């Protein structure tokens, strides 16, 4: 823990001692497992369990490393006077009365600011409500018609070009901001390298016991504080203050990078077309055409060299376009018509993802291969390369606006954007005080959908913007991001952990060589210290519910990984939905049938094991008791699903329409900002 003064010294030293002890005992246990405990008689399950334990071992190392520099910020720096601040309230289809309450709280923020409602629903009723409450109303301009909208990221990106505040506070449609939120956070921006300050999310409609696991005290506490210690605090999409300069910088940076990529792809495609034409034409071609092809090839090579030498993409593009025009136009006007239509037809036939205007940004290596294998006529090649180069423009035509400061590569735009900020050298801050309060999902269906979207987006970022290979990040930042991504792979390990007990109790499949004293000597100290470690990490926090859902949502984690992989590599669309702020109708049972089936199997396995003990039909009572105990632990973890299903019919509807819940809103507003959580 780091701050001035340091956080609780005793807890800091105890935590670090437990990190060392936990990692040492974990290493001791896993090395013994690899060397002495594999049961080759049941090698598939034995190796599967070892793989799951190896996953957990890596997770422990990543988590321990991250927590080593847990940072406790005691008091915020003095507020920054005279800053121009915009407050963005992002809305998709949330009820107007809910947004109205959010607007009222935002307008009441003490620090001078402008409040904007960013409405993706184009609601006349909401516009009137926003204006009546003292806010301004923004919708996307007509430029967005017919273009990919990019959900919340697109909404924010559009608003960034319609406003001018130096700093921006982003709030979801249900988040009631405390009046002092800007006074508490703007002081951090005195450091010119700070790009964002994130505050916790806290929900005021969560019933006692938090049976849906909505509150996240461990994440919005030790985990974010630990990431903050490594300058890797996460942007969570709401309740955060952003520096406009930082976001515009990364937007321009990635626009320039994508433009350069488009140009390189166009050069590859042009070279392939010219090479194909030369390969198939022989010596019978018009000498004037042959000379033009040679000139075009030379120009393409020079363009590549100039790009490598640091010349601007704009300069190279314009010069190459002029050269291609000069070489091709006289010949094409003389003998060729329809070359562009030919290329458009080829690209459309061979790659459905390539637009008929043959914009290079849509091309990939496979498209270039197809172009190279085509028997191009020399005249067709000249015309097609000319058209191809003309399609390179500084305007990214398939987007509503060329510069997208908020990343659009993932459904978790905040996560991807945060990584880009850190890679560009910007800093992030976690301010550990609740300064806004919102609505949590009120049913299991919404919870599962929300967690699925988070996991899908995180895996999308891993596959498209891998922190381990991304330039600009420190080693600690790489590991911090990867630790979060790695955690969503837990679903696969969870299946093995859940299956181990029943497989032994029902079928006698022994995943280790023996449940001997040697096994327990290696395992039990590790388990004891590991649990103590997590108890100290979550010092005084209700973390049990979060642990339960980490295991209980194993089908969601698996589905997220599979669907994200299919989306990135196969182009399969993700079913994106904004988290509902009202309770959804219908039964949740079919959503959790895998968990219910596992619960049934676990109960059967435990009963069979206990029956064998009772009737004396088992020769290894220790193995039976060990697996029954493990099975009961898993049942306790999965019981949260049964609890959520049972409570659904008993808990009254929450605060979905704030206009009818003014008392609860007033109480929530009074609580937020009242203390650290």
Per-chain topology:
Blueprint: H1 9-36, H2 43-67, E1 85-91, H3 96-107, E2 114-119, H4 124-133, E3 136-138, H5 151-160, E4 167-172, E5 176-177, H6 181-185, E6 194-198, H7 219-229, E7 240-243, H8 244-281, H9 287-308, H10 313-335, H11 339-350, H12 365-373, H13 378-390, H14 413-423, E8 427-430, E9 436-437, H15 444-464, H16 475-487, H17 490-507, H18 517-537, H19 544-552, H20 554-570, H21 593-615, H22 621-648, H23 662-671
Parallel strand pairs: 1-2, 1-4, 2-3, 6-8
Antiparallel strand pairs: 4-7, 5-9, 6-7
Helix pairs in contact: 1-2, 1-18, 2-16, 2-17, 3-4, 8-9, 8-12, 8-13, 9-10, 9-13, 10-13, 11-13, 15-20, 17-20, 17-21, 17-22, 19-22, 21-22
What does this structure look like?
The protein is mostly helical and 677 residues long. Among the domains are: 85-251 and 410-445, Spore Coat Polysaccharide Biosynthesis Protein SpsA, Chain A, CATH 3.90.550; 252-390, no CATH class. It has 23 helices and nine strands. It has helices spanning 9-36, 43-67, 96-107, 124-133, 151-160, 181-185, 219-229, 244-281, 287-308, 313-335, 339-350, 365-373, 378-390, 413-423, 444-464, 475-487, 490-507, 517-537, 544-552, 554-570, 593-615, 621-648, 662-671, and strands at residues 85-91, 114-119, 136-138, 167-172, 176-177, 194-198, 240-243, 427-430, 436-437. The strands form two sheets. A seven-stranded mixed beta sheet has the order 3-2-1-4-7-6-8, with helices on both faces. Strands 5-9 form a two-stranded antiparallel ribbon. Strand 2, helix 4 (124-133) and strand 3 form a beta-alpha-beta unit. The longest helix is centred in the middle third of the chain and has 38 residues, at 244-281. The radius of gyration is 30 Å and the shape is globular. The protein starts with 8 loop residues before the first helix and ends in a 6-residue tail after the last helix.
